[in-house]
Every structure is written in C-alpha cells, then in structure tokens.
Amino acid sequence: MFPLFKLKKSYYHVNAKSRFISSPLNVPSRTKRVWIGLIFDWLLILAMFGISQWFFLVPKPPVAYFRVDDEDYMRPEIPEIISSGVAGFLSGGVPLIILLILQVLFFWNKWDLYHMVTGHATSVAFSLVFTSLFWITVGSHLGLRPYFLTKCQPDVHRLSPDIIYYTADICTQPLKKFDFQGFPSGHASNAFAGWVFFVLYLNSKLKPWNGTAYVWKGLVLTLPLALATWVALTRVRDFRHFPFQIILGSLIGIASAILSYRLNFVVFGWFLGPGDGNDHIPARYQYLAAKKDVPNANGTGKREVEEVTQAHNPAATQMV
Fold first, then answer.
1. Which residue ranges does the record assign to the Phosphatidic acid phosphatase type 2/haloperoxidase domain (predicted)?
2. What is the C-alpha to C-alpha distance for residues 318 and 296, in angstroms, rounded to an integer?
C-alpha cells in the first residue's frame, strides 16, 4: 500500500551517478521534460508576485492597539526619501539590468542567462511574498510607523484615565492600510534580495578568493551591499520604520537571495561555495552531467557538452 510514489531502485544507492539530483519529488523531471519544468517555475514566480500584491492591497491587518502617550509614535510625518516605486526599480530593475549587460559582454551562455534571470526573480518574489505575509499577520502589532500618532491625531475628548490602550477608532484623521504595514520593511527586504543575489552571482564569476589579491573585486562586491544598506536606512531617516523593522526586512531579503542562488547554481560544499571553485555553474548542467548520454539527451549541442565537462573540472574553470 505504501509508499504511494514508488522510488527508483537507485534512490538509496550511494554510488548512483544521479545521487545529486535523485528525489521522489523531482516532478516534472528536469532531464526528461525540461520546458515543462521551466514553465512551472515561472508560473510559481509570477504567482508569488501576484499573491504579494494581493496581500499588500486587500487583506486587512489585525486591529492595532497603542498608547496615545507613546513618544515613539510621535515622529513628524515628512516626505519619504525613496518612494516605493523608485525603491522597486533601484532594488529589482537596476541589478538585473547590470547583470544582463555583464552577461552579454563577458559570460554569454544561454543556461547561465536563464538561471541568472530566474534566480534574481525568485529572490525578489520570495522577499515580497514573505514580507507582505508578515504585513497582514503581525504588521499591525509590530508595524505601526514612527509617525503614527502624528498622522492619527487622537481625539482628546475620548480619552479616559481608565483606558491605557486604544485602537484606530480614536483617530480624527483618516489612516490607510499602508500606515499599519511597517513590519517588516519592504524597502529593506527588496533591496537586499536584489543586491545580495547580484553580489553572490558576481562572487562566483570573479573568483575573489583565489589568491589574486585584486582590490577592485572587493569593491565590486561590497559597494552593492552599501547601496542596499543605504536604501534600507533611508526608511529610518524619513521616520517610516523603526530599526528593528529594517533589520528583520534585511534578513528576509538576504535569506531570499541565498536560497534563490543556491537553487539555480551548482554549489558543492556547505550551502554556498567559497567563490573560488565551481559555484558559477548553472544548475542545468548538473542535470545534463548526471545523464550517461549527455550529448544526445536534450538536444545538447557541442558547446553545452564542453561546458558540462568543464563543470566537473575545476582547473578548467579558474578565473583570474
């Protein structure tokens, strides 16, 4: 009767060549039904973008309780330094555009291009969906913004010495759903999701840890992180977020980027490669290399076969 899904005989074989990709949940198979798997990936990515947008616009967060004498919520309401639209382009569009330019100039390879774009989109999608999920679940409890009471303008005639905590019903000015969605910071999560993936991708290509001692490689890898940090910290400067909201948003973005990169590029070792080995190899070549008939399996051309060979020969892929 069990299991309902019959495993291949080689699943637990320690010497099986396909041990790196073998899984009872590899459906659809990326070796037999390539395009179905790729389409399925993008349907999920687009679904995550759609769900996050729905979370942002539709569901109401839980009722918020606050003290009207809480000075933390009495910051002034000033114009934001970076709007949501600009932040989205700066964190999602700009790194992708730069990566596409670098791909055309230096790394041109169709599977590398595919996994680069897919990984970047997945990173941003993961970040958005989890950030927006927190907005509608705990956002009102941890997500009131520093200017909340300034915008709320509580009705002093309804205050009572017997009541400590109030709800938004006491406000004399209209509040938007956005005012209750401060936890975690969407600017921070998106900034780190986009730029950390950017850094991980370049880290694998530049090979900064191979002893070449090029200072410019360090700058290339750290400046994007400084930019992401600046985007996040502007939300503290314009009183849109508290520091803990920024920190949690940043961690969501970093985790999304690491997970997305790990899903799309071959990394032999603990979770992420050291940046001096084979962690630049697109995941597609892992599937090709696991098949005995690599040259004929998926219409693989000579160029792809050579790259699969190089993928398993670190000496052939060292980049200065």
1. 124-261
2. 27
Rounded Cα–Cα distance for residues 256 and 108 (Å):
25
The span from the CA of 310 to the CA of 304, in Å, is 10
Q: Return the domain boundaries, the chain.
A: 65-280
User: What is the DSSP-derived secondary structure letter of residue 8?
Assistant: P
What digits encode the pLDDT tens for the residues 3-35?
A: 676 767 766 666 665 555 667 677 777 767 788
**CA–CA separation, 258 vs 243, rounded Å?**
23
Task: Decide: 179 and 155 in contact? Cβ < 8 Å.
Answer: no
In tens, the pLDDT along 164-223 reads 999 999 999 999 888 888 899 999 999 999 999 999 999 999 988 888 889 999 999 999
- Taking the C-alpha atoms of residue 135 and residue 1, their distance in angstroms, rounded to an integer, is 43
Q: Which residues contact 192 (CB under 8 A, 6 or more apart)?
A: 127, 228, 232, 249, 250, 252, 253, 254, 256, 257
> 171 - beta bridge partners?
154
pTM across the whole model: 0.85
CA R_g for the chain: 24
Q: How far is CA 203 from CA 125, 135, 267, in A?
A: 22, 33, 13
- The label of the residue with tokens 């520093």 reads 146
| Residue whose pair of structure tokens reads 């679940």 in the numeric block | 137
pLDDT tens digits, 218-270: 999 999 999 999 999 999 999 999 999 999 999 999 999 999 999 999 877 66
The distance of Cα 154 from the centroid of its chain, to the nearest Å, equals 38
Percent of residues in the chain assigned helix, strand, coil, to nearest 5 = 60, 0, 40
Contact 116, 154 (CB under 8 A): no
- Tokens at 259, concatenated: 């997970």
